[in-house]
User: What shape does this take?
Amino acid sequence: MCGIVGYVGPQQALDVVIAGLRRLEYRGYDSAGVAVVSDSGIHTRKKAGKLVNLENELDFDPLPASHTGIGHTRWATHGAPNDVNAHPHVSEDGTIAVIHNGIIENFALLRDELIDRGVKLRSETDTEIVAHMLAAQMTESASLADGLRAVCQRLTGAFTLVVVHSETPDVVVAARRNSPLVVGRGEGENFLASDVSAFIAHTRHAIELGQDQIVEITPESVTVTDFFGQPVDVNEYEVTWDSAAAEKGGYDLFMLKEIAEQPKAIADTLLGRIDASGKVSLEDMNLSHGELKAIDKIIITACGTAYHAGMIAKYAIEHWTRVACEVELASEFRYRDPILDKNTLVISISQSGETMDTLMAMRYAREQGSKVLAICNTNGSTIPRESDAVIYTHAGPEVAVASTKAFLTQIVACYLFAMYLAQVRGTGYGESSSEIALELGRMSAKVDLVLDTSEAIRDLAIEIADARSILFIGRSVGFPVALEGALKLKELAYMHAEGFAAGELKHGPIALLEDGLPVFIVVPPQGDELHDKIVSNIQEVRARGAKTIVLAEEDDMSINEFASHIIRLPKCPDLLQPLVAVVPLQIFACEMATVKGYDVDQPRNLAKSVTVE
Ligand code: M6R
Assistant: This one.
């Protein structure tokens, strides 16, 4: 959840760290803080609220020049988001500064031990105890890395810890367990960060850190060892996107930019995976034909928007492959004793590849002997690294907290997998199999067409900005689209919004309908067996005075007389319709939040990457 940066090298550390934090602010923005190490010791500044508050504080009360620094942007877990609880935390003797992402689960026990020893804690955080434990440990340890190693052996839970010591001013040391950390290897300088966007402006050479590893960086060296001091092999790679990809590129908001990037994100995710005859190629996924043929059940686990992608995938997988598929919220999955065996394929969908609930669910599945396939957007992140197989989506960096382009590419990756599985198992999906694959190839251009509806959707947001509540309904794959439309509105516009299966309306939610209540209705393509049923649902909604906002195919005239507003969608096969239907709902949520004056890219209480359970 929190964002972490560390730097050592010839540049002014503070400048590098603040620029890195700006890139990581999407991970948390409750407070921010920095520490630099100079000849006169460790100096910190920290401030509640967004990074700009810290920057103002630094203007008012500057730090001394330094070539070593660490910085943190916080999503609060232990303790309120105030100045005192902001990171870094410093030991009583002032020699150690620590920043942390994650939760130290045995914190209460360790805190009590420190209190018994007479240590005076200043904050309510779990992080501060590490500063005191490490300061005490340094009387026995030969180096900062050794000291941190010893402290980590006493910690349980999830943590990335980054520490500096006043007596070794050109060293930064970090430890990683269950929370993300990457190293950026530069020329005469080195970096640590929660993700590569923090240092991509300086270097593209990245090193993945594994579980339970310690890294020590100096200007000239990167040394990685395990928690017992043994050297480990690391995976070094080149980051393929450039720093411009993580900038706003002329848009006012990251979310608007990312919505506009969706046609390209789809095209990039499909690139090289469907040939001219409509044959799908996923040979590099790392599941053999034998393994794919042995699957007798698929379980998809994911959270939030990625879960909605999984719900859509279920329809495609079962229809095209005839393999039973369940979808489950990752946070529920491993606590209900699910039935898994070696013939179960678990698919973990995650943009970040770091979501703790999804990670724990996949680990649980692997412990039960199941194979895990990750569908992920972040190269080198924990979930794909620990999976048996991976399909990377190629959405590029997604910075806005509300997921958009990652969602569309998750759906595309699931379709590709379903088609490929059908191909390998010979189940086919009717004579039209190659035609559907070719249609998928055309979806990028169709999403581009939907982007043209933005202006009308903005007007709609202004018109219904005062609504108390907004409902979304759909059937089949339109149901998860409705859920996603409601989720987007909740997270961005802080409004009550609910998504329902349209057929369920009459079983309860219809009681919510009242005069003027806006209801978005996703209408399947004409010819779909559910089309006429949802037209009846529109009439039921309309008859109760609600305002019907209908998303329907461009030439579908059957809805005209029952619709207060119509949003037109390009024609496409039924199962592919979510790719075009969800886009107006993303734009709507973004516009609604803008009309209400909210921070679209950094909505309250949220963080982009949820690395706590
Ligand atoms: O990184 P992940 O895809 O695993 O994240 C899962 C959810 O936390 C994420 O989709 C969340 O629901 C977004 N805020 C939705 O916009």
Remarks:
- Residues 464 and 518 are 8 Å apart (CA to CA).
- The mean pLDDT is 93.
- Residues 303-306, 350-352, 355, 358, 401-403, 491, 606, 609-610 surround 5-amino-5-deoxy-1-O-phosphono-D-mannitol (CB under 6 Å).
